[in-house]
From TrEMBL, chain A:
PANTHER family to which the protein is assigned, alphabetical: 3-ISOPROPYLMALATE DEHYDRATASE, HOMOACONITASE, MITOCHONDRIAL-RELATED
Enzyme class: lyase
Cofactor: [4Fe-4S] cluster
Protein's name according to its UniProt entry: 3-isopropylmalate dehydratase
Function: Catalyzes the isomerization between 2-isopropylmalate and 3-isopropylmalate, via the formation of 2-isopropylmaleate.
The protein's Enzyme Commission number: 4.2.1.33
Keywords (A to Z) from UniProt: 4Fe-4S, Amino-acid biosynthesis, Branched-chain amino acid biosynthesis, Iron, Iron-sulfur, Leucine biosynthesis, Lyase, Metal-binding
Subunit structure, as described in the record: Heterodimer of LeuC and LeuD.
Source taxon at top rank: Bacteria
Molecular-function GO terms, alphabetical: 3-isopropylmalate dehydratase activity; 4 iron, 4 sulfur cluster binding; metal ion binding
Pfam families hit by this protein: Aconitase
Stored InterPro entries: 3-IsopropMal_deHydase_lsu (IPR004430), Acnase/IPM_dHydase_lsu_aba_1/3 (IPR015931), Acoase/IPM_deHydtase_lsu_aba (IPR001030), Aconitase_4Fe-4S_BS (IPR018136), Aconitase_4Fe-4S_dom (IPR036008), IPM_dehydratase_rel_enz (IPR050067)
Automatic annotation (TrEMBL), chain B:
Pathway membership: Amino-acid biosynthesis; L-leucine biosynthesis; L-leucine from 3-methyl-2-oxobutanoate: step 2/4
Domain Aconitase A/isopropylmalate dehydratase small subunit swivel: 1-119
Entry protein name: 3-isopropylmalate dehydratase
Gene encoding the protein: leuD
Alphabetical UniProt keywords: Amino-acid biosynthesis, Branched-chain amino acid biosynthesis, Leucine biosynthesis, Lyase
Length: 465, 211
C-alpha cells in the first residue's frame, strides 16, 4: 500500500519527469511572465534557444503599468515594450496595455481561468504562492529558473518540508483573510515557514471565498514559505467554471472528476502542524519594517525593535490606533480584488477621505465591473483617486510613490524599508481598515466606524418612527 | 558560471536581520540590463543618505577593496524573487554570504550565480561577526571543498551544504545544459501526462499529442 501523501506530494508525484542526485525534474503546467522577465529572455537570446511551450506561457504587464497615462515614464514605457517584444517574438500570449484581460499577474491569470487545481504554476515573482488558493502547487522562481523553464518547461526542485495550518472556528465580523494572514505571521514570524509548503485547513479556511483564499496564500510567502495551498472544493470549481481559458465541456467534467480526489490522505505526515483559533483574530496593522512587526489595532507598539521604530518614526508603547497616516493605498495582488473593493466601499460610502487615497484595481476586468456597478464612482465621490490596474504603490516601480517620511495605510503585502518609495513608511492592513484610516487620518479600528454606523442607523430609524 | 572552490578575501559584517531584496537592490534599479552591472546599486538606500552622500556608519562604505564575504543576521534575502539581488552582491565582488538563515528563493538564485550561502550556528556566527566588526575588511577564507570558513590564527568552523548545490558550485555548472540531456525523458513524460490530463491543454495549440 502507498504511504499516505499530502496534496502537495501528490501534485509533485504527478509532475515528476525524472530524478537525479537528490533533486526531481518537475513538469510545469503554467509559466507566467511579467516585465521583470527581461533577464530570462536575455539569457535565452544569448544561448539562441527557443521557448519549449509558448502555449503554456503567458505574459502580462503589471509592475510598470502606470496608474494614469500621464504618469508613464521612459522606464515604464521601455519595460512594458520589452515584454511585448519578447513575448511576440516567441509566440507567447501576453496581455499588454489596452488589453481588457490585463491586470496584476496573480489577479488576471486566475480570472482568465488559467489557474487550475492540481497544476504546477511558476512565475518570476515570489507572490506566485497566490495561485495555491486553487489547489495548485505554485511558487516563485528567479531569473535563471525562468530561463530554464522557458527552454525546458521543467524545473529541478528538492521536496519542501510540509506544514499544515489548521484554522478552527470562524473569523469575527470585519476580520478578513488579510488579518488572518498577518495574525499567523505575527505568531510564527517571517522565517516561521522557511523551506515549507504550507497547507491550510479547518472551518475558517473552508468558509473563505476564493478571493480570501488568494489573499491568504499570497501572504504565505511572507512567512518564508515556498508555497501555500488550499485543497480545492466546490467553491473552487464554481469560481473557475466558465472562465475564458478554463477547460470546458467534456474536458471540464474530466478535470472536476480528478480534482475532487485532490486532497491530503488521512495520516499524511507533516513536519509541522499548527492549530489556530479564528475567533482570536482581530484587525491587524503592521507598525514596523517587516510583516512580522504586526499587532492588533487595539494593541500598542511593542518594545525592542529600535531600528525599525527609528525608521518608522514611532515609539514603543504608543497605541496602534494613534498612528497618523498621510496617504492610503488600496490595490495589489493581495487585496486588489472585487470583494476587497466592496469591503472598502462599504466604509467609504457617505464619507470623505482626509488623506489622499489611491485605488488601483487588481485587473482591468475588476475595474470595468466597478465602473458598471457604480463602485468606482463611490470611491471618486469619497475623494479617492481611481487609477488603472497594476502593481502601483505596492512596489513603487510605475511612477507612484509615497513621499519620504509619509505613513501610508496600505493593502499590499510588504512593509519593507523603501518599498513604496525611499523613506516611505508602510502600514499593512485590510482594505476596510485602509478605508477607515483614510477617512480618519489615522489608524482606526474599522469596527468602531461600522458599529457607529449601525448606531447611527438605529437612531435615524427611531427618529423616523 | 564561475566555479567556487576556495576564496580568500576581505570580510565585512552587516549585523542586521531580515535584509530583504528591496534593500539589496531597490526596485528603481530593476530595469537595468545584466551587462550594465548592479554592483554600485547594492544596498543603495542603506549605504546612502537621502541626498546621495555615503553613510559614515556603514562598514561597507569604508573598505578599500570590495569584500569577498559578507556576514549578516537571520532571514537574509527575504521578499521579492528578484535575482538582481544576487547580481548586486556578485557584481559588488561578494562570493560568499554567511547568515543565521536565508530565504528560499534567494538561496536558489544565489547558487545559480556562483554565490555561496552558508548557514552557521550562534557561536560561530557571533565569533565571526565580532571579528569583522572590530576589523572590517580582514581576510576570511571560504573553502567549499573542505566546507569550512576560517580566519585569523586557526579560527573557523565547518558548515553543511546540500550535496547538489555543492556540486553545482564546485563545477560552476550550467544547469540548463545538464537538463537538456534529459530531453527524451521530458518528451516521454509530456506524452503520458497529457493522456491522463487532457484538460490541461484544451485551449492550447501545439501541445504534444494534439493536432
Ligand atoms: S502587486 Fe506587489 S506583490 Fe503583487 S506582483 Fe505586483 S509588485 Fe508583486
Amino acid at each position: 500500500m502507498n504511504a499516505p501523501r499530502t496534496i502537495v506530494q501528490k501534485i509533485w508525484d504527478t509532475h515528476r519527469i525524472t530524478s537525479a542526485k537528490g533533486a526531481d525534474l518537475l513538469f510545469v503546467d503554467r509559466h507566467l511572465l511579467h516585465e521583470g522577465s527581461h533577464h530570462a529572455f536575455d539569457k535565452i537570446a544569448a544561448s539562441g534557444r527557443a521557448i519549449r511551450h509558448p502555449e503554456l506561457t503567458f505574459g502580462v504587464a503589471d509592475h510598470y503599468a502606470p496608474s494614469r497615462p500621464e504618469r508613464a515614464t521612459e522606464a515604464t514605457v521601455t519595460m512594458i515594450d520589452r515584454l511585448a517584444r519578447n513575448t511576440k517574438h516567441h509566440g507567447v500570449t501576453s496581455f499588454g496595455l489596452g488589453d481588457s484581460r490585463r491586470g496584476i499577474v496573480h489577479v488576471a491569470m486566475p480570472e482568465q481561468g488559467l489557474t487550475l487545481p492540481g497544476t504546477i504554476i511558476v512565475c518570476g515573482d515570489s507572490h506566485t504562492a497566490t495561485h495555491g488558493a486553487f489547489g495548485a502547487f505554485a511558487f516563485g522562481i528567479g531569473a535563471s529558473e525562468v530561463a530554464h523553464v522557458l527552454a525546458t518547461q521543467a524545473l529541478w526542485q528538492t521536496p519542501p518540508r510540509m506544514m499544515r495550518i489548521n484554522v478552527n472556528g470562524h473569523l469575527p465580523p470585519a476580520v478578513t483573510a488579510k488579518d488572518l494572514a498577518l495574525h499567523i505571521i505575527g505568531q510564527i514570524g517571517t522565517g516561521g515557514a522557511t523551506g515549507h509548503a504550507v497547507e491550510y485547513g479547518g472551518d475558517a479556511i473552508s468558509a473563505l471565498s476564493m478571493e480570501g483564499r488568494m489573499t491568504l496564500c499570497n501572504m504565505t510567502i511572507e512567512m518564508g514559505a515556498r508555497s501555500g495551498i488550499v485543497p480545492p472544493d466546490e467553491v473552487t470549481f464554481a469560481w473557475i467554471d466558465g472562465r475564458p481559458m478554463a477547460p470546458s465541456g467534456r474536458a471540464w467534467s474530466a478535470a472536476v472528476d480528478q480534482w475532487r480526489g485532490l486532497r491530503s490522505d488521512p495520516g499524511a505526515v507533516y513536519d509541522h502542524v499548527l492549530d489556530m483559533d479564528a475567533h482570536q483574530v482581530a484587525p491587524m496593522v503592521t507598525w514596523g519594517t517587516s510583516p512580522e512587526h504586526v499587532a492588533p489595532v487595539t494593541g500598542v507598539v511593542p518594545e525592542g525593535q529600535t531600528d525599525a521604530l527609528d525608521y518608522m518614526g514611532l515609539h514603543a508603547g504608543m497605541p496602534i490606533a494613534q498612528i497618523n497616516v498621510q496617504r492610503a493605498f488600496i490595490g495589489s495582488c493581495t487585496n486588489g480584488r472585487w470583494s476587497d473593493l466592496l469591503d472598502a466601499a462599504a466604509v467609504l460610502k457617505g464619507r470623505q477621505v482626509r488623506v489622499p487615497l489611491l485605488v488601483s484595481p487588481g485587473s482591468e476586468a475588476i475595474a470595468a465591473q466597478a465602473e458598471a456597478a457604480g463602485i468606482a464612482d463611490l470611491f471618486r465621490a469619497a475623494g479617492a483617486e481611481w487609477g488603472s490596474s497594476g502593481c502601483s504603490l505596492c512596489v513603487g516601480m510605475n511612477g507612484d510613490q509615497v513621499a519620504p517620511g509619509e505613513h501610508c495605510a496600505s493593502t499590499s503585502n510588504r512593509n519593507f524599508r523603501g518599498r513604496q518609495g525611499p523613506g516611505a513608511r508602510t502600514h499593512l492592513m485590510s482594505p476596510a481598515m485602509v478605508a477607515a484610516a483614510a477617512v480618519m487620518g489615522h489608524v482606526t479600528d474599522v469596527r468602531d466606524l461600522t458599529l457607529a454606523d449601525m448606531a447611527q442607523h438605529t437612531i435615524m430609524r427611531e427618529a423616523r418612527a | 558560471m564561475t566555479p567556487f572552490v576556495t576564496e580568500t578575501g576581505p570580510g565585512v559584517a552587516l549585523p542586521m536581520d531580515n535584509i530583504d531584496t528591496d534593500q539589496l537592490i531597490p526596485a528603481r534599479f530593476m530595469k537595468r540590463s545584466r551587462t550594465e552591472g548592479y554592483g554600485e546599486q547594492l544596498l543603495f538606500d542603506l549605504r546612502h543618505h537621502a541626498d546621495g552622500s555615503k553613510r559614515g556608519d556603514m562598514a561597507l562604505n569604508h573598505l578599500s577593496v570590495p569584500p569577498m564575504l559578507l556576514i549578516t543576521g537571520a532571514n537574509f534575502g527575504c521578499g521579492s524573487s528578484r535575482e538582481a539581488a544576487v547580481y548586486a552582491l556578485v557584481d559588488h565582488g561578494i562570493r560568499c554570504v554567511v547568515a543565521r538563515s536565508f530565504a528560499d528563493i534567494f538561496r536558489n538564485n544565489a547558487m545559480r550565480n556562483g554565490l555561496l550561502t552558508v548557514v552557521c550556528g550562534d557561536a560561530e556566527h557571533s565569533a565571526l561577526t565580532a571579528y569583522l566588526s572590530v576589523a572590517p575588511g580582514e581576510a576570511v577564507t571560504a573553502d567549499l571543498k573542505a566546507q569550512t570558513i576560517s580566519w585569523g590564527q586557526k579560527k573557523g568552523f565547518a558548515f553543511d551544504i546540500d550535496a547538489n548545490a555543492r556540486r553545482r558550485l564546485l563545477l560552476g555548472m550550467d544547469e540548463l545544459s545538464e537538463t537538456l540531456e534529459y530531453s527524451k525523458e521530458i518528451e516521454d513524460f509530456e506524452r503520458r501526462y497529457l493522456q491522463h490530463h487532457p484538460w490541461i491543454a484544451p485551449h492550447f495549440r501545439g501541445f504534444p499529442g494534439r493536432a
